[in-house]
Amino acid sequence: MTNTIQILSIEKTGKESSLQKEHNNKSIKIIDGYFFSTNLDDQKFTKISKLISNEVSQTILTKKNVDKVLSSYSNFNWVVEIKFLPGVTDNIATTVKEIIKDNLKSSFKSFELGSTKIILIKGRKEDITKISKNEANPLIQTIKIYPFKKYLNNFKKNQFKIEKVKLPKKKYSKKEINLDISDYHLSLIGKLGIEENDKSRRGTLGLDLESLKVIRNYFSTIKRKPTDVEIETLAQTWSEHCKHKIFSAKIDDIQEGIFKKYIKGATEKIIQLRKDNFCVSLFTDNAGGIEFNKDWIICHKVETHNTPSALDPFGGAITGIVGVNRDCLGFGKGAKPIANTYAYYLANPNKNYQLYRQKKNKDPMLPANFIAKGIISGVRVGGNCSGIPTPQGNVYFDDRFAGKPLVFCGTVGIIPKKIKGKPSHKKKANPGDIILMAGGRVGKDGIHGATFSSEELDPNSPVSAVQIGDPITQKKMSDVIIRELRDQNLYSSITDNGAGGLSSSIGEMAKESGGFIVNLEKVPLKYKGLYPWEIWISESQERMTLAVPPANVKKVIKKFNARSVEATIIGKFIKKEKAIVKYNKTQILNLDMEFLHEGYPKLNLKTSLPKIKKENKKIIKKSSLIDKLHKLLSSPNIVSKEFIATQYDHEVQATSIIKPLQGVGRVFGNATAIKPLFDDEKSIALSQAAYPQYAETNPYDMAGCSIDTAYKNLIVSGANSKKIAILDNFCWCSSDEPDRLHQLKEAARACYNYAVAYQTPFISGKDSMFNDFKGFNKTGNSVKISIPPTLLISSIGVVDKISHLTKITPDDGDILLILGKTFNELEDSVYSKIIGHQKSKNPVVNSKDALQTYKNFEKANKLGIINSAIGIDLGGLGIAITKMAIASKKGLTINLKLKDKISVDQFLFSETQSRILVSIKKNHFTDFKKLFYNSNYEIIGECTGADVIEFKDSKKIIRGKISDFAKSYKQNIKGL
Amino acid sequence: MNVLVLSGYGINCENETLHAFEVVGFNGKIVHINDLLQNPKQLNNYQVFAIPGGFSYGDDTGSGNAMAKKIMTNLYDQLIDFTLKNKLIIGICNGCQILINLGLVPNVNKKDPEVAMIENKSGNYECRWVLLKVTNDKSPWLKNISTLNLPVAHQEGQFMIPQNLLKNIKTKNLIGLQYMESNKKLAKGKFPFNPNGSKYDIAALTNQNGNVLAMMPHPERAFYHYQIPNWQNNSSKKFADGYKIFMNAKKFFA
Q1: Active centre residues of B (catalytic)
Q2: Cα distance between residue A488 and residue A477, in whole Å
Q3: Which residues are within 8 A (CB) of A121 and not within 5 positions of it... i.e. 6 or more apart?
Q4: Phi and psi for A683 in degrees, rounded to 5?
Q5: Which residues of B84-95 are buried (b: 16+ CB within 10 A; e: fewer)?
C-alpha cells in the first residue's frame, strides 16, 4: 500500500542540467510526485503508475528500489518538496485525475490528489535553500526542506500528505453590515475589509471614506442595512480597475475628464475629419475593433497584470495572457484569438534590490531575476498551450521597476462581420435570457484582485489575489464558442470573467437588458465551503458568461458538455433595472443598477507642475566609435531578445509572415506581421512603443514619441496609413499626487494632438494608476519606489498586399539613406545612460515633418522603390545601421562628413524621432528623388557586401567586423 | 481521398493542417476526439488520419501521454487496423509525441511504447526553422524528397531510443528525418541546427511499412513561400517545402 507515486527521468533532463549549471554543478535530480488522499493497493499503484509515466525514459520509485535507484545518481543529502497550497490551481493533478477516470472508470472513484516537485541535491542546506528560492514561490506553494534520509523515511512509511482547503466550520447566514459607525471604523472597512465574527478582516475593499459614506446614504434612503455581498459588489464595481475613476474624473478645468476629452475625443475628431471610417467598435466592448476586409473584423486589446505579477510572476503573467485572450473571445459575439503581444518593464535581473514589504527584513519582494523569469515563462506557457502565436513584443529594464514590474499582455482577434446576417460586433442580453457560466469552476483564487490592483503594493496586499491559469480548460471552452456556437447564433451576448468575476461580468452585461437575478448556489465550485460573497467576486480563470435565449439553452449546454466543458445555468437577465443575487433562496443582494454603476462619488482632481528631478549624470569617458557601438549593442535595452522570440511559438496557426527575428542574421524586429486568412493576401502588422525613460523630462513629448514610434514601425513594415489604429495603456504611479496627475494630463493631451495629427484613432485602452511599492530596504528604512510613468502605445494596421511588406536587409550595391532630419536629442537616450551625458535636448516629435516622410515612404514602398527599411529608435541611427548589417550579414559604408552642425556622436546616437533608415537600388534613385522632393533625406552610404561596417570621415576610416557586432548584440542578459 | 484531422483537449494546429490537405486535393474533416471515441467506425471513411500539433492536456505527465492514454481506451485497435490496410497516418509535433506514446511508431517489437519523447536538451521551448535530411525516402510521406526547410516548435522534441532498438531502427531504415547543419552536413547534435539534442539528429521516425510518420517539424507551417523566413530574398515559388509532404500523400492514393 502506498499513497504516493514518484517518477524520475532516467537521463538528465534539460531542466536538471540548467539547475545544475546555476548551482555550481552540484548533483541534482528532480522527481515528479503525486500524493493521493487514499492508499493505493499494489494493483492500482502499478496501473496508475503506468498510465502517468513512460517506461522508456522514466523510472517509477517503489519502496524496494528507491535506495538503489537514487544512490545510482548521487549521494544526495538534501531535499526540497514543493507543492501547491490548497486551493491553488494544480493543472497536472487535474490531468492525472482525468487519465485515471478515463482508464480505470468504475474501479477507482473518489479520491483527491496533488502534484509535487521534489528536488534532490548533493550539497549543503544553503544550496537547497537557494534552489527553493529560485524554483518556488511561498505565496502559492508550500516549500519543505529536509534531509535526504527523512525523505527516504517518508517515502517508505507513506508519510506524504495532500493538504485540503480549510473549510469554514459554520454554515453561511446572511450578514448585515452596520455602517452607522465612526469615520475611523468606516475607513477601516475600506482599507482592511469587512470584519468577520472572529474579528479578522477579509482583505482590502479599496473603498475610500467618501465612497463608504455614499453607500451609507443609499442604504439609509432605502431604509435597511447593506449585506456583506452588497458592499463587496460595490467595492468591485467601483474599483479604479473597473471604473477608471481617475480617467473619468474632472481634472483641473477639464470637466469631462481626460478619457473623454483626449482619448475618446481624439477618435471622435478623427472620425469626423476622415470620410473613410474603418473603426467598428470603440471603447465600450472588451476590445476595440476595426475593419480588416469586406467580410472580417479584427480586434485588439492590451491589458496589464502588474500587481499579480509582482506577487507571483508566473501566475500573474499566464493569467495576464489568457485573460486578455478572453477579452477577444468576449469581443462582439466572440472573436478568435490570432496573435498575442507582450511588453515587460522590469528591474535589472542581475541586481539584488533587497526590498521588504514589512519591517525587519520580513515579507521580501521576490528577487528581480525570479520575477523576470517567471513573467517570461508565464506568457510562454499561456500562449503556447493556447495555440495562439506570440510574435510581437519587447522588454525594457530600469531600476525603477524594482518595486513593481509592468506586464502588458495583448491579443488580436478576428471575427466575421456578419453572423447569420447580423452585425457580429453587436450583442445584447435580452430580458428573459438565461445567464450561463461556462468553462472552469470557481474557487478562492483571485479574491479581491480588482480592488487590490487599484492600490499600492503594501503589507496588506491579499495573497488570495493570485491565480494560476489553466490554458487547456480555456482552449477547450474557446474552441466550442468559436467553432460550434458563435456562427449558429445560439447566444445573444457574451463577456469574459476577469476582474471582479461574476459580479463584474453579469453586472456589465445586465446593462444591456436592464437587470439580473442570480442564484449563487448554482455556481459550480472547485471545492466546498466558499461563502457567497467569495463565489460572487472570485476571479477564478477560464470562465465566460453567456446570455442565452431559453429555447437554446439545452443545445448550448449539450455542445459544451460534448467537449468536456462545464456550462451551468446560474440565473437570468431581467428588464427591471435591479441587480438581485440569491443564495439558497435568501436574497443577499438587491441594488438599483443605476446606483451600482453610477453611484460612486466622482473625483475632482487638481494637478500641479512637477519639479524635474535631475539624476547624477555619468561623464563621458573617451572611447572609440566602434567601442561605443559595442557598448550600446550589448546594453540590456538594445541587446537582442531572441531568447524570448524562440521560446514563444510565433508560427502556430501558420500565419507568421514577418517574423520576430529578421534577416539571416536574426535581428529582433520592432514590428511583425501575420496573414490571418488563407484566401486573402491582406496582413496585419503589429508594433508597440513606450518611452518611460523620457517621461520625467517631458511627459508630453514622451507620449508623442510613443505614438510616433508605434505608428512609424507599421508604416515602415508596409501597412496602409489609412488603416492604422492604436491602443493606449497608461501605467502610472502615485496618481493621487498633483504632479503625477499633471504628467498624466500632459501625456493625454499629447495623445490627442498626435493621434489627430496622424489620423490614427484610439480603439481601446486601459490604465493602471498606482504602480508604487511602499516598504523597507535591508537596513529597515522605509522606501517608496515608483515606476516612471509609462505609456505603452500598441499599433495595429492592415497591409493590403504581400508585396508591400518590407525587409530590413539591404542588398549589395544599395544606396543607404536616412529619411528625416537628425537633431541633437540625446537627453534620456540610451547613449546618455550607457556612454555618458552631454548637453542636449529630449526628443520632440514634429508631426508635420514626420507625416511628410511617412507619406513619401508609403508611396515609394508601394512603387517598389524601397529595397529595405528599418525604423530608427533606441540607440539612434548607429544602432539601426548595425542592426541592418547584422541582419543581412552584409557590410555597409557610412559617410560621416556631416553637413549640419552636429557631432558624429549626436548624428549616430541621438534618438530624434520619425526617422527611417532605408536602402534603395541605385537605379531607383531618380524616382526616389522625385518622390521625396518635399521631405528631408540624406544619402549616408552604401551596402558593400563586405564583412565590415566602415565609418568614413574626411580624415580616416574606422572599421568594425559585423560578426563582432553580432556577438555584442546577441549577448545573454545577465541574470536571465 | 478523405483525411480525418483530430482535435480536442489542446490540440491546436488542426485548421492549418486540414488546409494543407485540402489544397493538395483531399476532402477533409476536423473531428473531435470525443466524437471519434464515441464512434470509432467512422475512421473507415478515411484514407488518412492526421494528428496535428498542439498541447494536448498541456503536456502534463509528458507530452502526448495523456492523449495517447485516451486514444487507448477505445481507438487503438482501429488505428492498428488502419495501418494494416496501408492507409496513411501522420503525427506532427504533439501528434508525433502521441504516436510515439501509442507505440504506433516505430512499432518494431509491436510493444508500446518503445521510444520516449523527452525535454529538449536546452531545457527551453524551441521555436525555430531547421534544415532536414530525408533519410527514409521509402516512406510514402517522404518519397522523392531529399531535404526540407521546416519550423519546429516544441518543449519535448528529443527522441530517446534504447541502444539496441536504435540499431534496429537504423538497419530497418525507420529514421524519417534528420537535422542538418548545412545542405550537405548532418547537425551531429550541434545546437541550434539540432534544436533538441536528439541522438543521430532524429527529427522523425516511421513504422516499418513507412505509412505511419511521426515528425516533430511542422510541414503545415511551411506550406506557402511567404511562410519561410526572409522569403522576400528568394524567388517566389508559390509553395514551400512542407507542401511536398502533403502532395506525397495525394500521390500515394492517386
Answers
A1: 93, 218, 220
A2: 16
A3: A23, A26, A27, A28, A76, A77, A78, A79, A80, A127, A128, A131
A4: -125, 165
A5: eeebbbbbbbbb
d(CA B105, CA B110): 9
Closest CA to A532 of A546, A517, A521, A540: A521
Is A95 at the interface with chain B, CB within 8 A?
yes
Selected residues 7-26 of chain B with any CB under 8 Å from a CB in chain A: 7-10, 12-13, 15-16, 19
Q: What's the structural domain count of chain A?
A: 2
Q: Is B184 on the interface with A (CB under 8 A)?
A: no
Residue A518 CB burial class (10 angstroms; 0-12, 13-18, ≥19): buried
CATH of the domain at B211: 3.40.50.880
CATH number at residue A891: 3.90.650.10
Interfacial A residues in 473-512 facing B (CB < 8 Å): 475-476, 479
pLDDT tens readout for residues B218-243: 999 999 999 999 998 876 789 999 99
Q: Provide the domain limits for residue B77.
A: 2-253
| Candidates A53, A472, A562; nearest CB to B9 | A472
Would you call B63 an interface residue with chain A, using a CB distance cutoff of 8 Å?
Answer: no
Asked if ipTM goes beyond 0.90, one says yes
Q: pTM of the full predicted structure?
A: 0.95
Give the pLDDT score at A105.
75
**Is the per-residue pLDDT at A106 higher than 70?**
no
Tell me if A675 and B65 make a contact (CB, 8 A cut-off): no
- Measure the CA–CA gap between A45 and A43, rounded to whole angstroms: 5
Total domains, chain B: 1
Query: B74-84, pLDDT tens digit by residue?
Result: 899 999 999 99
What CATH number is associated with residue A83? 3.30.1280.10
Structural domain harbouring A107: 2-156
Nearest residue in chain A measured CA to CA from B10? A472
Q: Is residue A61 part of a domain?
A: yes
Distance (Å) from the C-alpha of residue B150 to the closest C-alpha of chain A? 11
User: If you average pLDDT over residues A700-707, what whole number do you get?
Assistant: 98
Q: Do B32 and A562 make contact, defined as CB atoms within 8 angstroms? A: yes
A vs B: CB pairs below 8 A = 167
Cα(A296)–Cα(A328) distance, integer angstroms? 14
Within A325-433, strands assigned E span 336-346, 356-358, 362-364, 392-397, 406-416, 418-419, 422-423
> If contacts are CB pairs under 8 Å, which of residues 52-91 in chain A contact chain B?
52-58, 91
Residue in chain B closest to A57 (alpha carbons) equals: B116
B127 to A648: CB separation less than 8 angstroms, yes or no:
yes
Q: So what's the pLDDT on residue A162? A: 77
CB < 8 Å from B in window 545-564 of A: 562-564
Residue contact A385–B160, C-beta within 8 A: no
- A76 located within any domain: yes
Name the domain boundary from A124, A156, A188. Answer: A156
What type of residue is A424? S
Amino acid A456: pLDDT: 56
- Give SS3 for A253: coil
Residue A654 lies in a domain: no
pLDDT, greater one: B86 or B35? B35
Sequence-separated (6 or more) residues with CB below 8 Å from residue A942: A813, A814, A815, A816, A892, A893
Closest chain A residue by Cα to residue B22: A678
Model confidence over A393-426: pLDDT tens digits?
999 999 999 999 999 999 999 999 999 999 999 9
Distance from CA of A392 to the nearest CA of B (A): 14
- Answer whether residue A14 is part of any domain: yes
How far apart are the C-alpha atoms of A31 and A893, rounded to whole Å?
56
Structure confidence at residue B111 (pLDDT):
72
- Of the three residues A130, A156, A182, the one that is the final residue of a domain is A156
Amino acid at A332: G
The phi, psi pair for A542, rounded to 5°, reads 60, 35
Residue with cell 542578459: A973
